[in-house]
Amino acid sequence: SLRPSCVSGVHALFLQINCYFYRYYDKMKAKNMFKRVYIFLLTVVSSMGFATTLSAQDSTLVRPQAPDNEQILSDIMNGLSPYYYPSLFMRYMEGDTTLTMDDYRHLYYGYAWQPEYEPFDKPQAKDDLLRLIAVTKDSLSLENAEKIIDLANEVMKSDPFSPGNLNILVYGYGSIGNKVQEKINYRRLQMVIKTIQSSGTGLKEASPWHVLSFSHATDMMAYLNLDYGTRRVVSRTTEYIPLAFRLPGGVKGYYFNFERMYWHRPDKMPEKESAGWEFNGIPLKKRTLKIKID
């Protein structure tokens, strides 16, 4: 079996997690198992202690703000702009580690206008990838590690900013001792997470975290190592994910904006969940009956 070498020794923990999932393989439905493997792998890498740190210019904006869609679109379409999308995306895919927070905000949110952006499609490669990870048990061969890398790179073609998939690339490259690619993908992961966090506080409906897909929201919760309950639709483009336990400071959950998913598929847009009784779509006010006691 392959003995991974990593900056923080995190891969040993990865293998323990794989063993955990294998032990419960027969007790879980495949779909749910794959989802949990994805989440747990992301949770582990979020705690990695890489020696590299993000510079001041890369840090999350002091005051989180929603993406300016019009400005981003104008920038990424301007061939003279440093944010011209074809050039910027090429730098990202080549592993350029000098990309700044502004670059990443244009990359991540600008992807919504690219023809490859299909948030409702799920590539077969993703299922194959999670299945392979789940059955590696407590050891990983060089052959399987290379297959994991190949499948994760295949997923990159349709979901290049998936925190979960970037995490798996960190795992894969670290397992075969490719420290250059391991650090490149770890930086990508950190910068994508910070980009999402820069789009709002996530603490109220008026300041949600803007994401490109449902899975990115799940990845964020896993990255933050948070247990959560059932998602709740609070508007046509926003969902609320309540936490299983309240955090210090009174944080009960996080809001996520999915509007970009529906720009080209308005038919997929959900209806806001009703907060009470309705008649023909019109909410009815609750009446309080006063009982007089003699």
Estimated radius of gyration: 21 Å
Number of helices: 10
Question: What are the low-pLDDT stretches, counting only 5+ consecutive residues below 50?
Answer: 3-36, 46-57, 278-284, 286-294
Helix and strand succession?
HHHHHHHHHEHEEEEE
Structural class per helix/strand content?
alpha+beta
Approximate helicity band: 40-55%
- Distance between the first and last residues' Cα: 83 Å
DSSP E strands, number: 6
The strand order across the widest sheet is 1-4-3-2
Summarize the biggest pleated sheet: 4 strands, mixed
Sum up the overall morphology in one term. Answer: globular
Which range does the strand content fall in? 5-15%
What's the average pLDDT?
Answer: 79
Structure overview:
The N terminus and C terminus are likely disordered. It contains ten helices and six strands. By secondary structure, the protein is of the alpha+beta class. It is globular, with a radius of gyration of 21 Å.
Write the layout of secondary structure elements.
Blueprint (H helix, E strand, L loop, with lengths): L9 H14 L6 H16 L23 H9 L7 H9 L7 H10 L13 H11 L7 H15 L6 H13 L3 H19 L11 E2 L3 H10 L8 E2 L4 E5 L10 E5 L20 E2 L2 E2 L11
Parallel strand pairs: 1-4
Antiparallel strand pairs: 2-3, 3-4, 5-6
